[in-house]
Amino acid sequence: MSQEEPDQCVYLVDDDEALRDSLVWLLESSGYKVCAYESAEAFLEVFDLEMSGCLVLDVRMPGMSGLELFEVLRERHCPLPVVFITGHGDVPMAVKAVKRGAMDYIEKPFGDRDIRGLIEDSLARDRQERERRLQEGETARRLSELTQREREVLDLIIAGKLNKQIADMLGISIKTVEVHRARVMEKMGANSLAELVQSVIAGDPAAMRM
């Protein structure tokens, strides 16, 4: 049985009706939620950035190809991990797509266990990426709640400055720096300097280039 979250879906785009129906049966019987489309254009009509799960995409299709759809989705910042279905002659194109960010590819004919394994890995990546985005959003929210002075102190902490150095640079007392530092730690939900640095990296990577 699959371990995907209730709202995760395997989006299948393939013009081969027999293969499409076979995969839908296999995946649904394995516990996955599946949404199947006969063309890239049909999938684009329903595409939404809030979709979660993964996309299983045939390389060659009439009209817009799977590779062309992949490029369109990249431009739209699609968060779905993509697995390509490919014939032997299209493997080089699939490899190129993987280098451009696709999750993986699988060559026809493939085994049930192989496709299920790829889909399980893709859904796991989707869960991890969604969790990362949630953490980034939470960190950004916390950063936005810092006062200007607290942000100045935070930036100097991240830059490796000691309390005395921060006090000298900002023209305030060491005691005041300690108060701001404590408030920053509390607002950021950090229990240590390491946690503080990690959270700032997640929400504002540019801060680490100071």
Automatic annotation (TrEMBL):
Any one Pfam family match given in the protein's UniProt record, by short name: Response_reg
Domain HTH luxR-type, residue spans: 139-204
Any GO BP annotation: phosphorelay signal transduction system
InterPro entries attached to this UniProt entry: CheY-like_superfamily, Sig_transdc_resp-reg_C-effctor, Sig_transdc_resp-reg_receiver, Tscrpt_reg_LuxR_C, WH-like_DNA-bd_sf
GO molecular function, one term: DNA binding
Record's keyword annotation contains Nucleus: no
Keywords: DNA-binding, Phosphoprotein, Transcription, Transcription regulation, Two-component regulatory system
Boundaries of every Response regulatory domain copy: 9-123
4-aspartylphosphate: residues bearing it: 58
DNA-binding as UniProt keyword: yes
PANTHER family on file: DNA-BINDING TRANSCRIPTIONAL ACTIVATOR DEVR_DOSR
Name under which the protein is recorded: Response regulator
Species: Azoarcus taiwanensis
